[in-house]
Amino acid sequence: MSDLSRCSLNTATVKHATLTEAVDAAAGAGMGAVGLWRHQVAEHGAEKAARIVSDAGLRVSSLCRGGFLTTADDAGIATALDDNRRAIEEAAGVGTRELVFVVGGLPALSEPGQGPRPDAGPGDRDLVAARSRVADRLADLAPFASEHGVRIVLEPLHPMFAADRAVISTLGQALDLAAPFAPEVVGVVVDTYHVWWDPRLRDEIARAGRESRIASYQVCDWNLPLAADPLNSRGHVGDGYVDFPTVTRWVAEAGYDGDVETEIFNSEIWAADPRETARTVGERYARHVLPHL
Amino acid sequence: MSDLSRCSLNTATVKHATLTEAVDAAAGAGMGAVGLWRHQVAEHGAEKAARIVSDAGLRVSSLCRGGFLTTADDAGIATALDDNRRAIEEAAGVGTRELVFVVGGLPALSEPGQGPRPDAGPGDRDLVAARSRVADRLADLAPFASEHGVRIVLEPLHPMFAADRAVISTLGQALDLAAPFAPEVVGVVVDTYHVWWDPRLRDEIARAGRESRIASYQVCDWNLPLAADPLNSRGHVGDGYVDFPTVTRWVAEAGYDGDVETEIFNSEIWAADPRETARTVGERYARHVLPHL
Lengths: 293, 293
What we know:
two-stranded antiparallel ribbon, 8-stranded parallel β-barrel, alpha/beta, TIM Barrel, 11 helices, homodimer
């Protein structure tokens, strides 16, 4: 039996399971942790959610997610800051220090996955300015995160989401944005789906390790053809194109010794029995990831 | 009337037009050039294709495309080199020095847009090795290109095509691969669709200019939602999320004074009258690109 103590099931992988079902599936598969989402924590309250996880003998490897920091207007900024302060409190309450941030897309956006607003002007497409506002909002939030012992974990998303979900597109860029802050306050996640293609990946993972900023290693595969909603186009580890031995070795060489979360958005996988999905996640982790950790 | 002398219609934008129809549409819209594809040149022969273009008072801004250099087996390498030598001869024959290269995806590929071969092993997913083979093939081909006065123009493709079409995903990576060769032998293309998201874009365009390697500036927009085949998901300049004033200014500041090709793969646009499409291309160029060149 493989050692799955560092293997974590992100509950988005079993989207239609309740928190208890997801936790049972992860524990039943022999895993050591789960990654949670805020709506689940809200449903039970942080204290009870934490107990559901710990009663099953598991840890919380991360909480998803804060972010959406690119808005330019004062009211939108105030709302985003409020919501992120609540997310920081929830992470502390549920017993994880790692709060994953998806930083948001362009102000030109109508809604995720869709075209620009009809009234969007050149300024609403200004990617450089949107990225600069992310830096400003991190400076606003870092002291609050620090007080709560929570780390803001920047997630670079695949460049195909740069317009509508995250203007952070590479690990190097995430590290540059994290640089002004202490590594226990702002970190990064290495998610294979989002960064596997990056020609600078080896160097940037090594840099993330040197700077003590790797807060999470998330794995899932790059499948083709892309799903109609490309957000849901990920696959079980080993089904697609990602070179898991190599990327995992880079992460291990960078000194990362934390949990490895599997986070898959895929409607076929969501339709499967959560216990079956958790078993497959554990098997794929044992075959493609664990030997290289 | 705007000056469209640097505006070029890549004939892929009017995919269903004959070469003569495409050239007439570009000339009728007041453009100065067309970008051609090899199958069109093959249909007429290089000499006649060149005459069709020059008789309309146009230049050939580039030829698409060579490449597909990632195969690992000897027979595949020999075939790829042969085909690319023919492409180099065709570029010279049709009167352009700029031959665009799409370098190919992973050996794990079954076919573009599809999942990996069932028998693909870890080595077939080795992106670092695939990229290294591209460097080797460029060294094989560079002397032949140089003798023919043709430049191999490396095209970084959007990272969502890294598995199945091009293991060159950023302008910086293309410049690194070009570095061992003279700038008149290996260059790069800046295609907004593929590189607009890159946080290092400004620096890399400036570097490309300093190194005299910008062989082409191609424009089309990043539209959402992605088309079922994301290859065909591009839009007319101004319809999507790309910040054309900013990117165009960076290209101009880098000293680029060549043609600006519009290359759009989009089945709705392909269904339109080529003359109508060419007029729209010219209008969008005049509105969103020309003022910033």
